[in-house]
Specification:
Helix content is 56%, strand content 14%. The protein is of the alpha+beta class and 560 residues long. A four-stranded antiparallel β-sheet has the order 1-10-3-8, with no helix packed on it. It has a four-stranded antiparallel β-sheet with strand order 2-9-4-7. β5 and β6 form a beta hairpin. α10 runs antiparallel to α14.
């Protein structure tokens, strides 16, 4: 009775837990998923007294020495698959009179291993141990594995382990042909328990990195160098016009930094994998965190740019609360999805978990994209209604960039679906690294294009909050046709247009009395105050665009 009362009290306490406790539980489960990656297999499978199953097998791609893309330490030109195991038998009452267990090891390339075992079309399973029923069907030996045809490219070893005794399996297969190589270890008698310690290793001429992943080393090495150059140019341009930068440009700087950290982490991850043969838990966890943060920050940046922050509107108003809520949910969903995806590469993960982890991130991505394109359409209409032709061209260019990126993504996703649904992987495993690497290359291209449109320029902050009259590009033959922002700024600074000069005259007077940073702070305050007054008069929740004209200059002068 006391135990029942204690259970009821425990149940009531558990039922009264706060939502925060539930959130902590979700976070702990996400951390557990990430920590599982630390025990993920690499090109070296390590066993420490593990209980043997009826059979276990795994595969890795190995280059032959003759056609390897590189050769050097720690592979030192070797191309091989090796087994080094110590087997220990245990006493079992169910073992019967025969107190020995037969343990078999089988190494074969994909072309041979595909013929091993028996595939049941009814149960949709693959059996490697020969039973009495399969012996009548396949003419195999009962109690032994069903091997493929004998070949010089395969290796077979069988040892008997007595109860309370030990036995060793030390075999090495020299790889002569580049292929995917399987290692099968089987004990077809379940009644005789056996533990195993040791390792199984796949070695390429350049190291331990799987053959289908080797292309990631040069790919992310090049991307890392490009991002370093990108970051240097952006910082140089930002410091040149530091007092003229606005919030969108700081977001772009953050994205460049995150992307640089991510590709650097991936490059270090593959280099460490190649040297040790074991996936690093630290670099994998850091890569998951940075990837989720970069994905979320990228969508937020696109949303802010599409809303015209810093160009059409000085503030976000109450919209920022919804943006923060959406971004927080997206970051958690992206982290969980990335962790499950990484786990599925090395562990059997149920399809239901993959679907459950992909559904939230897919839904949030769809909501974000709908929000981005809706905001972009409103910004374009606003520029058209106010006849801001040059600002309109900037947003039209942004829309072209996003549409092209979306079309390319759909085409590539369709190819990936075909690639994974067919046997294209086993036929073209050397180029598998492009499947994931393509998204990083596309991301770099889109980020560079957006950064070019919103790069820091002289007087860009003053121009962003001003309404510049319509100009035609034909007035100056020396101007670049595609440099829309540069065209506006040069015309704004030159004073070639009388109306533009008149609108800027008040700001110039303020510049003569104060340094540039103080002046910009005053202009922002004046514009925001006008925005609040106008919003209260109109009774609208949206923030309209305001003109930096003579009235704004008067407000600045009074503030001074």
């Amino acid at each position: 009775a006391e135990a029942q009362r204690q259970r009821r009290r425990t149940h009531r306490a558990a039922s009264g837990m706060t939502r925060r406790t539930g959130e902590i539980g979700c976070a702990l489960r996400a951390c557990a998923i990430i920590l599982l990656i630390s025990v993920a297999h690499g090109s070296i499978d390590v066993y420490n007294g593990d209980q043997m199953n009826r059979w276990t097998y795994r595969s890795e791609s190995v280059f032959a020495r003759s056609d390897a893309p590189a050769s050097g330490s720690p592979g030192d030109g070797r191309a091989e698959v090796s087994i080094d195991l110590k087997l220990s038998g245990q006493v079992s009452e169910d073992a019967g009179a025969d107190q020995e267990a037969l343990v078999e090891a089988y190494i074969a390339p994909r072309s041979v291993f595909d013929s091993a075992g028996y595939r049941s079309s009814v149960q949709r399973q693959r059996y490697f141990c020969c039973t009495e029923d399969l012996a009548a069907l396949l003419k195999c030996n009962v109690g032994r594995i069903i091997r493929g045809p004998d070949s010089s490219s395969s290796l077979y070893k069988a040892v008997r382990v007595s109860m309370n005794g030990t036995a060793d399996i030390k075999e090495t297969l020299r790889v002569q042909t580049s292929d995917i190589y399987y290692v099968l270890i089987a004990k077809c008698d379940d009644a005789k328990p056996v533990t195993m310690s040791g390792k199984v290793a796949w070695v390429n001429p350049y190291g331990f990195l799987n053959g289908y992943l080797y292309g990631n080393i040069p790919l992310y090495g090049i991307l890392c160098a490009l991002y370093i150059v990108f970051a240097f140019l952006w910082l140089w341009q930002t410091f040149r016009f530091l007092s003229d930068t606005f919030v969108v440009q700081y977001f772009i700087a953050l994205l460049v930094f995150l992307a640089m950290i991510e590709v650097s982490t991936k490059y270090a991850y593959y280099q460490n994998f190649n040297s040790s043969g074991i996936r690093s838990a630290e670099t994998t966890g850091l890569s998951i965190f940075i990837n989720a943060l970069r994905m979320t920050t990228s969508l937020v940046l696109l949303l802010l740019v599409s809303m015209g922050l810093g160009i059409l509107r000085p503030t976000l108003g109450d919209v920022w609360r919804r943006i923060v809520a959406m971004a927080s949910a997206h970051f958690i969903a992206a982290a969980v999805f990335t962790a499950v995806s990484n786990l599925s590469h090395t562990h059997p993960v149920a399809a239901a978990w993959l679907v459950l982890s992909s559904f939230p991130i897919s839904l949030l991505n769809a909501i974000f994209l709908l929000w981005i394109f809706t905001s972009l359409s409103r910004s374009i209409k606003q520029c058209e209604s106010r006849k801001q032709t040059l600002k309109l061209e900037v947003f039209l260019k942004l829309r072209k960039i996003l549409v092209v990126a979306a079309v390319v993504s759909i085409m590539w996703f369709s190819y990936v679906m075909y690639y994974t649904a067919t046997d294209a992987f086993v036929q073209r495993w050397r180029t598998y690294f492009i499947i994931d690497g393509f998204w990083d290359v596309l991301y770099f291209a889109v980020l560079a294009a957006i950064a070019h449109l919103w790069r820091p320029r002289k007087n860009s902050l003053r121009f962003a909050y001003s309404e510049v009259p319509e100009f035609t590009l034909e007035d100056d033959d020396e101007e670049e046709e595609g440099d829309v922002m540069g065209t506006e700024l040069r015309r704004f600074e030159s004073g070639s247009d009388a109306a533009s000069h008149s609108r800027a005259q008040g700001v110039v007077e303020v510049d003569r009395q104060h340094d540039r940073r103080q002046q910009h702070a005053l202009v922002r305050e004046a514009i925001k105050r006008e925005a609040d007054d106008e919003e209260s008069r109109l009774g609208s929740s949206s923030v309209p665009e305001f003109v930096l004209d003579e009235n704004a200059a008067e407000i600045v002068a009074k503030k001074d």
